[in-house]
Amino acid sequence: MSEILCQWLNQELKVSRTVSPKSFAKAFSTGYLIGEVLHKFELQGDFSEFSESRTSTAKLNNFSRLEPTLHLLGVQFDQNVAQSIITEQPGAATKLLYQLYIALQRKKKSGLTGLEMQTMQPLTNLRLQNMRSEAFREQRLSRRRQNEIMAQIQAAIIQIPKPASNHTLKALEAQKMMKKKKGAEDVANEIKKFEALIKKDLQAKESASKTSVDTTGPMTTDLLNTYSDDDYIKKIQKRLEEDAFAREQREKRRRRLLMDQLIAHEAQEEAYREEQLINRLMRQSQQERRIAVQLMHVRHEKDVLWQNRIFREKQYEERRLKDFQDALDREAALAKQAKIDFEEQILREKEIHEQIAVERAQARYKKHYAVCAEILDQILDLSTKVADYRMLTNNLIPHKMMHDWKELFFNGKPIYEQASIKQIAAKPTEEQLIELEKRDLLDSNDYDDYKNMVGEWALPEEMAENLPPSNNCILGHVLHRLVEKSLPPQVESTEPELLSSSVKGCVLGKTFSGKTTTLKSLQKDFPVKILSIDTLVQEAIQAYHDNEKVSEASSIPQEDRKEDQLTVRAQLGAKSEQLLKKGKSIPDMLLVNIMVNAINGIPVNQNWILDGFPMTLNQAQLLEETLTGCNRYLMEAEGKAAQISTLAVDPTTSKEVPLPSSAFDFVILLDISDNSSLSRMNDVMAEEFSRVISHEDTSEHAAAESQHVDVDPNLRDQIQHRIIGFLDNWPLLEQWFSEPENILIRINAEIDKNSLCQKVKEIFATEIMKKKNKVEKRLEEKEAEKKAASLAEPPPPTPPLPPEPEKEKETHQQRDPSKTPPAKGKPQSETSPGKQESLQDGKGKKGSPKGKPPGGKVQVKKSPVGSTDIPPTPVAPPPPKPGSEEWVYVNEPIPEEIPSFLVPYWELIENSYINTIKTILRHLREDQHEVLKYLYEITTSFQEFLRRPDHKQDFVAQWQADFNSFPDDLWEDEETKAELHQRVNDLRDRLWDICDARKEEAEQERLDIINESWLQDSLGITMNHFFSLMQAELNRFQDTKKLLQDYYRAMERKIPIDDSKRFTRIPLIRLDSKDISENQLRIPLVPRISISPETGVPRPKLKAILKGKIDYSLENVQTNFEADERLVMDTWQQASLAISNMVAAEIHQRLIEEDKENQPAESKEKSPQMSTNKKGKKENEPPKNKKEDKHGKGKSPPVAEAAPVVFTAEEIAEIEKKNELRLRIKEEHLAALQFEEIATQFRLELIKSKALSVLEDLITKVVDIYKLMEKWLGERYLNEMSSVEKLTEVARYHIETATKIQNELYLNQEDFFINGDIKVFPDPPLPKRPPPVEKEEDGTLTIEQLDNLRDQFLDMAPKGIIGSKAFTDILLDLMTLNLGTNNFPSSWMHLTQPELQELTYLLIVNSEFVDWRKFLLVTALPWPIPLEEELLETLQRFKAVDEEQMGTVTFEQYMQAGLWFTGDEDIKIPENPLEPLPYNRQVHLIEFFFRLFADYEMDPPQLDYTQMLLYFACHPDPVEGVYRALSVAIGTHIFRKVEGPVMTAEKTSSTDLSPVEGYVETEENAEREKREFAEEKEERDQKEVDIPENANTEKISMETLLRVFRGGSEVKDANRFTSHLKRENIYAESFMKVFQELETKDLEPIEVAVLLKHPFIQDLIANYPDYKIPDIKMILQRSVHVAGSDGERSPSRLTEEKK
């Protein structure tokens, strides 16, 4: 049944989600699909309000909207059914759907629309409601009757308690209503009965009237029609109808009235019956009443129980609903918490990914940093190496060295030597391996330069016209043929046949990049097979489990029947499962076999794409090797190994074998970022998690929704490793898919799904078209090749007509000499015999420097000269030159053993040649370094020798000591001066002798260096290296000649010649004088040729080297260089001559063999002409050796005795063909040999030129060094002589000036100077500067006087307060008894007692006492009067220094904090050292202030800085001084309210007040004071305006106030201060009254603004005089003025007048 429903839903209705039998309950658990089904039948109009969500709210909404529609269709649906469907109970959804299916099929058959059914719905509902309402009405009536009966019974029973009045009234009213209803029912019943009787009568009457009307009707109508008009009849008929309708209406009204009466009657009768019943019951006995009451109680209890049960059921239902809601809420909370946990997990994964990314970035940074550091180290090494060699070569580094260093740098090799490789152990160290790699690299570069004749081996100017030899094509062809014979190729073409047009590709990317999704979308539109390795592995394992066996058609051997019963896929699955069970990963080879097995099962022409495979480079290589049958790397290695010969290459076969095409036609990379991959994974996991939370079956959902991907449960743990694995493997894969042909296509996968799928489809369609065109093109090429192959097979070239024997012989003779190679680039026909002769002559000149004949070569090559008289008559174009592109090589078969012997022989030749060349070039390179080092060592050692110490300074020091020891009285004596001059001359001669001796020693050292044997040994070793190079070229030529000879003789089916002759050896130079026998030497040695200077004539080039002054010490170098140059030339000529002789001997051997072979033919044809020519030729050819003569003699007699034989035409043609083949072999052989000769001769000439240039360069460097030594020697000798002359001049100057030489005379090497740092006798001591002394100026007391007064006052009054009279007496005593004590300046000495009393009055405190500290402070003027801001800043500095906040500081802290002024004045230091420094008064004043105010009773002395600053708060204006003191005591600025004119005072710290400044009361001073007073008033008015509103809000305490007004401490000096104590108590009591009047509690601190408003405080501030600076200058000025009037003018007076 479920399958029928699924088919109905999926195919007929086509609902939005595919429904399967397994997912039936899940699909319909939300009610969304049920609503969709009803909506498709147009029964659910509010389907847009349905929700597809799986939350409980959405489900309740859907089913509540479904309920009326299902009831409309008659489907049974209630809350229980909905609950069973929501909880996915088995069968609930199926049962409901089946009922719905039946109801909808009925509706479909009836053809009713939803609107019609809705209109029909109220009728059925009305019937049902009427039935229900009647049932409920009857129940209510019965209950009401029972209640009324119970009420009446209870009212009748006496035992019933007193009933409530309302109950009885209600019962009576109910009884009346019941009676009325009963009467109405009785009436209604009677009416019904009456209507039934009337209906019966009416039916009987109607039946009778119908019959009568039927019979009479036609008769009356006919009569009426005939006897009346139609209108009248119509009116009658209308009236009859109206009467009938009125009668029917009256009948209906009558029936209704009767019905109402019947109902009323029935109700009345029912009420009457009930009343009668009650009356009967009331008449029953008491016992019956009691029983009835009990029965009514029981019935009432049953009703209560029933109602309770219903109520309990309702409670249970509510509890179930509440539990269900709680469960939903709990699930929602769990889902919310799970969602939070999931988001946290996502964040953790992102953090892990970021951490991994950071680690990868750090690793990449470290790698790049290491690489950059290594590169920088190499750059540094290169720079230091260059710097080192610039020192060695005097900034002239050889180009070759710099080139080698650059090569090492570019290849990442260290420049400096890491380890020594002279003695390498069996297992070399890593440093030694690096050094070996460096050596091999430099050797390879040097060999390449030598081979290609570039760089250091570039052609010199004299050889620039002769081009270097090109490749020997003939030798290359021979070697290629030998290699092919020895190693036949397996497969010539590895490219597969492109017969299939199927497209093969793969899609790669990170996890969740969209590979599977895009491929599934692609599969819908294209016939392509998608292969996923995961699916294939699972299928293989499943095949193994299913025991999948091979088909019977496959033939299996009997012995393998048991093992191979399973298919290949099943076997691979078995191996995979076995590995997976062990916890191991499946190896790449097994994965590739599974994939290849699946690919092989696909039809040939079907497209296939791999999903996410290959994942590593190894998998890609194995897959391509398995699909294409070839390995790319192996083919490249084989291609390199196939080119064995590097000395000769066959141009026709040197083409590289093309690499096979890739196994894929395209590779698509879906490129996404790591964050996108993680985001997609999180989205998939979140969706899966939401399904798990909603109790959804994963398997059923996967079957229902095929679009969702199966999620790996371990994906979250593996995603990071997968991303890292892809990032690690992708660069290698990218290189693999891009190298042969770029088949990689990148797509940005960070786009929406549809766009990505569309891009992939477009790419796939493009690749299909490409593959199709490629296949068509390949087929066309094959067809064209077949046609060309069928048409391109021309008939073999017909050989020329066989010439006559004489002509044939002539042609042979003419062609033989033509094999000598002409000038390059010219065809064979252009080489005339004259040119050949000139070429041979040139070779003869080169090859015979000592008059030796070049052997038989000249005669052989002169032989065709005679044939030049017979001009050839060419009919056809000139024949092709051997080795050219047109030349057809002779490929005659050769014996099988020849390649097996010649190929290893050629490898040995090549390896020996290359290794020898590299070794020689390495020695040359190392010798160049050794030469530079040696030259640098001899130059540095010679310079050190020149700078060796001498004893000239000892003589000079002794002479200076003797010179300075002369007595002073003898300096002016002439005889003494003459004696001193003579001593100077003796010193000069002695120094000159030392210089001459050092010069002779240096010249001898230079000669010893020149006469060393190093230069000759170095030149000999270098010459031997170049001779070894010549020997290597000669050995290669000899071995190549032997190989060619054996090859061509093998093609001619001849036995190889056993050449027992030893190879030619070039002699080397003997460097030592040991006697060695010739038998012990493998290589001949020759002694060095020494040429005497008389016989040797220097070359012009050498003269240029040795130009300048003739240096006989270098003559030996010149003569030896001439001898070495001649030796090089002789060796080169010997090697060149040996090569020419070998070529001539080979040609001669060829001619002899040809003559021997032609003799039988000549005898048979009886050709006397040929025989005479042959004899003439033999006469002209001198025998090369005895062996050749014997062969010639042995062959001649049979030729003469041969009998004539007649041959057929076929035999003649075969003979001619053999002769032609032999001629071609000969031409090819000689051409290859002569090509090698030219190449070898060119190499030898290049080696000769290089050797001469190297020797000349070495000689030039050495001679330059020798000349530089001579130059240094001469310059140093002249400098030493010049320094001696300078010393002499200095000495003579001091002699003439009669002065001693105090500074040391220094003469060392070539330097002379007077050392000012060293004196030979000390200077006289300088006088000491006297200490500064303070002078009396303008009557100001000095610091010393102030200290004296302080000490005296301190002894008398330690607390600082002293009586006024005692103070006056003390001053008077000090002035009158000033007997040398210097207590006061002179201007104070004129003060009289009244003046002193006036002075005391100015200083009185509290009208009786004087503060002597204030007196000293005033008398210490001038000092900078501080501003209020400066006082506050100084206070803050003191508080900052006072860490313990004790209010006192020590002297160190006092000096650290400082005052508002410093002693840093610009003091001019006098030039005269005997004059004392100026006295810095301000510095001493700062120290004096500490001594003045400090308490010395404490240890260490402590200074109360607040009290000190209160003294400095004094001001010429007493009111301003009080405000300044309050500001200092509180620590902040106190604003002053100016009410009247005040005295002016100086405000700047730069103004100094002096007690004795010029003070003359003149009109000018009075005007100035008035002007200053006006300015001060304006400033105060401005300040008053600028006072802020919240000014003076600081609080001040009683203690602070007493301290400001000198009431904070007691005086303990003497009993005479008791009055002062009373005064203090008076201040304290006044202040307490002020605080009490200002309503402060417990004398708490009060705001300054409030305090200043008090009248007492205002009066105190206005009249308090202690903070006024007294103007004592008036008294002093008056005294000075009086003293001056008497005619005594004091210094202070004079100073004042000056000012």
Supply the key terms.
1699 residues, mainly alpha, five-stranded parallel β-sheet, three-stranded antiparallel β-sheet, 51 helices, 17 strands, disordered C terminus
What this model shows, in words?
- With 1699 residues, the chain is mainly alpha-helical.
- A hairpin with a 6-residue loop joins strand 14 and strand 15 (1502-1504).
- Helix 7 (114-156) packs across helix 10 (286-393), helix 36 packs parallel to helix 42 (1481-1493) and helix 44 runs antiparallel to helix 46.
- The protein is flat, with a radius of gyration of 69 Å.
- The C terminus is likely disordered.
- Order of strands across the biggest sheet? 2-3-1-4-5
Backbone shape = flat
Main β-sheet description: 5 strands, parallel
Residue share in β-strands:
under 5%
User: What's the gyration radius in Å?
Assistant: 69 Å
Weakly predicted, low-confidence segments:
158-166, 215-228, 491-498, 552-563, 695-710, 792-876, 1090-1098, 1105-1110, 1164-1204, 1539-1566, 1608-1625, 1686-1699
Tally of alpha and pi helices: 51
- Portion in helices: 55-70%
**Category by helix and strand content:** mainly alpha
Write the layout of secondary structure elements.
Layout: H1 2-13, H2 24-27, H3 32-40, H4 56-73, H5 79-86, H6 92-110, H7 114-156, H8 165-227, H9 230-282, H10 286-393, H11 399-410, H12 430-452, H13 473-486, E1 504-509, H14 515-525, E2 528-532, H15 533-545, H16 568-581, H17 588-600, E3 607-611, H18 617-628, H19 632-642, E4 666-671, H20 674-693, H21 698-704, H22 715-738, E5 744-748, H23 753-791, H24 805-815, H25 833-847, H26 857-862, H27 897-946, H28 952-964, H29 974-1010, H30 1014-1051, E6 1068-1069, E7 1085-1086, H31 1100-1105, H32 1115-1165, H33 1168-1180, H34 1186-1201, H35 1209-1297, E8 1303-1308, E9 1311-1319, H36 1343-1356, E10 1361-1363, H37 1364-1376, H38 1393-1402, E11 1404-1405, E12 1409-1411, H39 1412-1419, H40 1428-1441, E13 1448-1449, H41 1451-1457, H42 1481-1493, E14 1494-1495, E15 1502-1504, H43 1505-1512, H44 1518-1530, H45 1563-1586, E16 1595-1596, H46 1598-1604, H47 1618-1637, E17 1646-1647, H48 1648-1652, H49 1655-1663, H50 1673-1685, H51 1691-1698
Helix pairs in contact: 3-4, 7-8, 7-10, 8-9, 10-11, 10-20, 10-27, 12-27, 13-27, 14-23, 15-16, 15-17, 16-17, 17-18, 20-22, 25-32, 27-29, 27-30, 27-35, 28-29, 29-35, 30-32, 30-35, 32-33, 32-34, 32-35, 36-39, 36-42, 37-38, 40-41, 43-44, 44-46
